[in-house]
Write a structure and sequence with these properties.
Among the domains are: 193 residues, Single-stranded right-handed beta-helix, Pectin lyase-like (Pectate Lyase C-like); 91 residues, no CATH class. 5% of the residues lie in helices and 49% in strands. The chain has four helices and 51 strands. The chain has a 49-stranded mixed beta sheet that branches. Strands 27-28 form a two-stranded antiparallel ribbon. Strand 50 and strand 51 form a beta hairpin. The N and C termini lie far apart (77 Å). 50% of the residues are buried. Pathway: Protein modification; protein ubiquitination.
């Protein structure tokens, strides 16, 4: 076996490190109740040749079938032609040799048939199995259903890059407590060539499962997603490098609300995927679902392109649709095609300490969106935006793009640095604009209050050297302008007859003159 790097050894709890050093301790020893490690069974004892010509399927299967609880079947160096092997409960397999499927087994993914009849390894209703192997397959390398405690570690899996409708490299269905760690999964499906169409073939596909860990892997050059999760919960996706895939790096979708909760998408590197870095999409379900997700510490770059052309997708941090209870924290995203964060029809979302050259975009309805200590190019709301609370605190943002006619019951902008005005407020709801630094060099001014039900402008630094800094229309009600520092190229305030306006204790710089207002 190849020597593991320290990161992968730590990820699988030290056991892989022991194997790399030649010891015989297996990861499921304690669970199988054996006092010591089981036997090591060499497949050559059962007639396996490893010459690249002989069909070694029966020999490897015979070695597995002869094993007892805790035993490990060992495949030494060589090339082993293999069709399909059925795994055995409590029996492990480690291969230094290359397992290679013949081309005549190749099948094609369809919506009606999402798994093949001839995976390299088939597992059904078994538990406590550890796999570490190298393979070139034309269908799935591993297809497991209704299994528990299966681990694939320190493996290298290569698919069929000529198959535009490829099955996944690894498929978990209705499984629990399963892991993929320290493994490379590549070339499952043809490379995407058009920004308008995509092809099948996913590195890791998880369906209707619970308690899945995908950590420390490299998932690249697959036809569709790096990771696809559907109707599954308690999923950890950590420390993976996911790049050059034909759709999103990580996609999570669902229909059954009772299965969907607890996602940890952390410390991944997502680059050059043809769609979003992370896509969690619940548009079809019809109601907002609380999923308790943490998306943190990820780095993304150049997602959303095919051969230099933009695709319809490509968010840098995440696309979030129809979900709630999500935290986006400490992510970094640069050079991606679409907004860094796209939020549509969501409930409660918190984004803090993210850094990106992209935009944050809000679409449709939401309950409570909190943006704190982020650095991003712009906040963009579409005209159909309807929110209960939008709370922005201590962000560094280039521009606020708030179209006419939106509704935000409570818009709170506190202690932000807004680099480019004007900020146009024409909405139903209440505005709290306090402690911000707003700079504008626009003829329209820096801050325009067209329509609000009430507004507090308190303790801001507002600068516009071309024209009036603040304009308040007569359709804006109950506006208080208090203790601001305003620098203006003309009259610092245009009050166009706003009802109930209060102006006090402001410090104004007009044409290099300082006035108290």
């Amino acid at each position: 076996m190849k020597v593991l790097d320290l990161r992968n050894a730590l990820i699988i709890g030290g056991t892989a490190l022991a194997w790399a050093c030649g010891t015989a301790t297996m990861p499921h020893q304690a669970e199988t109740g054996t006092a010591e490690a089981g036997r090591r069974i060499d497949v050559r004892r059962y007639g396996a040749k490893g010459d690249g010509k002989t069909d070694d399927s029966k020999a490897i299967q015979a070695a597995l079938d002869s094993a007892s609880t805790g035993d490990t079947v060992y495949v030494p160096k060589g090339t082993y032609r293999v069709r399909t092997i059925r795994l055995v409960a409590n029996v492990h397999l480690v291969a230094d040799g290359l397992l290679k499927q013949p081309q005549d087994l190749a099948g094609q993914f369809t919506v009606e048939k999402q798994h093949s009849d001839a995976p390299l390894f088939r597992a059904h209703r078994i538990s406590n199995v550890y796999l570490s192997f190298r393979a070139e397959t034309v269908n799935e390398a591993v297809y497991a259903s209704q299994c528990r405690n299966l681990t694939i570690a320190d493996s290298h899996l290569v698919g069929d890059s000529t198959n535009s409708r490829s099955f996944a490299g690894i498929l978990w269905y209705d499984c629990s407590a399963c892991k993929v760690t320290g493994t490379a999964v590549t070339r499952y499906g043809s490379a995407r060539t058009s920004p308008k169409t995509y092809l099948r073939g996913t590195a890791i596909r998880v369906l209707s499962s619970n308690g899945v860990t995908i950590a420390g892997n490299e998932l690249s050059y697959n036809g569709e997603n790096g990771i696809f999760i559907h109707d599954s919960g308690d999923v950890e996706i950590d420390g993976n490098r996911i790049h050059h895939n034909g759709m999103s790096g990580i996609q999570i979708a669902f229909n059954a609300a009772e299965r969907v909760n607890n996602y940890r998408v952390t410390n991944n590197r997502l680059e050059y995927n043809a769609a979003d870095a992370v896509d969690i999409n619940n548009r079809a379900h019809g109601e907002v679902m609380a999923i308790n997700a943490l998306i943190a510490g990820n780095y993304s770059r150049q997602n959303g392109f095919v051969n230099g052309e933009s695709t319809p997708d490509g968010s840098g941090i995440a696309t979030l649709i129809g979900i709630s209870d999500v935290i986006l924290s400490g992510n970094r995203a640069f050079g991606n095609n679409r907004p860094a964060v796209y939020m549509e029809g969501c409930g409660t979302l918190i984004a803090n300490r993210n850094v990106t050259d992209g935009e944050f975009e809000l679409v449709g309805q939401w309950d409570d969106v909190q943006l704190q200590h982020n650095v991003f190019r712009a906040l963009r709301l579409l005209a159909n935006a309807r929110g209960k609370v939008l709370d922005m605190r201590a962000n560094e943002v280039g521009q606020l793009m708030l179209p006419n006619g939106i509704r935000i019951d409570s818009l709170r902008m506190l202690e932000n640095q807004i680099k480019s005005g004007p900020v146009n407020i024409n909405m139903e709801g209440y505005l709290k604009f306090e402690g911000n630094r707003l700079t504008s060099n626009h003829d329209a001014g820096a801050l325009l209050l067209v329509n609000v039900q009430g507004a507090s402008l308190l303790g801001n630094h507002v600068t516009n050297r071309k024209n009036a800094a603040i304009t308040v229309r007569n359709t804006a009600s109950r506006v208080t302008i208090d203790s601001n520092v305003v620098t203006s190229g003309g009259a610092w305030l245009h009050d166009l007859g706003a009802p109930g306006i209060t102006i006090k204790r402001n410090r104004v710089h007009e044409h290099a003159e300082v006035k108290e207002q």
